[in-house]
Design a protein that fits this description.
Layout (H helix, E strand, L loop, with lengths): L1 H20 L1 H4 L1 H22 L14 E2 L2 E2 L4 H6 L4 E5 L8 E4 L7 E5 L5 E6 L16 H8 L3 E3 L5 E5 L4 E7 L5 E8 H10 L5
Antiparallel strand pairs: 1-2, 3-4, 4-5, 5-6, 6-10, 7-8, 8-9, 9-10
């Protein structure tokens, strides 16, 4: 009787030990969680690729170029070390201040009103096009083919003005061969009236 009880107890112990082996296969389920996070890690690696592009394109728009946007403040640009050849009292516009950009923008000429507001930016660089691809040296025909109905040849035929919906524009100044030798950004209506009135954009 005692021997039977011991055998039964031994059988229960062995079965209990075998029963402990069943949960062991379920233990990989926690280890499956790291594999999920490992799959998530590639998606985390995608986010750096979604970062913005390192620098904007180098171009000349109706708003100006780079940090030299119409309406910018003279003193703020000076404080940022962004101006060169600053001078007040030029012969054509004695009350205004003129300057040039720096670095890649060194061929951008700027005109500021007496209150320090940038109102004209002039592009004289052959390496800085408009976003649409117009650049210095292009013929009037080539520029007008780019802008179509947005542009208009001004009286006298020595300038072509492109005006956008916000009222800003670029005046393409043409030489005697009807090739662009300068681009002037500013208020479209002002560019037109100043050019046709011969006021030298003062």
């Amino acid at each position: 009787m005692l021997r039977r009880a011991c055998l039964a107890l031994l059988a229960l112990t062995v079965l209990a030990g075998c029963g402990d082996d069943d949960p062991a296969p379920t233990t990989p389920s926690p280890s499956a969680q790291p594999s999920v996070s490992a799959e998530a890690s590639p998606s985390a690696a995608v986010s750096p690729a979604a970062s913005p592009s390192p620098s904007p394109a180098i171009n000349f728009t109706v708003d100006g170029a780079g940090p030299y946007l119409i309406g910018a403040n003279l003193e703020a640009l000076k404080a940022g070390g962004l101006l060169d050849k600053v001078a007040t009292g030029a012969e054509t516009c004695p009350v205004n201040t003129t300057a040039t950009g720096t670095g890649v923008w060194k061929d951008i000429q700027l005109q500021f009103r007496p209150d320090g507001e940038l109102y004209i930016a002039v592009n004289r660089s052959k390496t800085i096009p408009t976003p649409s691809g117009a650049r210095l040296g292009m013929t009037l025909a080539a520029v007008s083919s780019i802008y179509g109905n947005l542009g208009k040849e001004l009286s006298g035929g020595a300038a072509y003005l492109v005006t956008t919906a916000n009222g800003r524009g670029i005046l393409f100044d043409l030489d005697q061969n009807k090739k662009v030798f300068a681009m002037i950004a500013g208020d479209g209506a002002y560019l037109k009236s100043s050019y046709e009135g011969g006021t030298d954009f003062c």
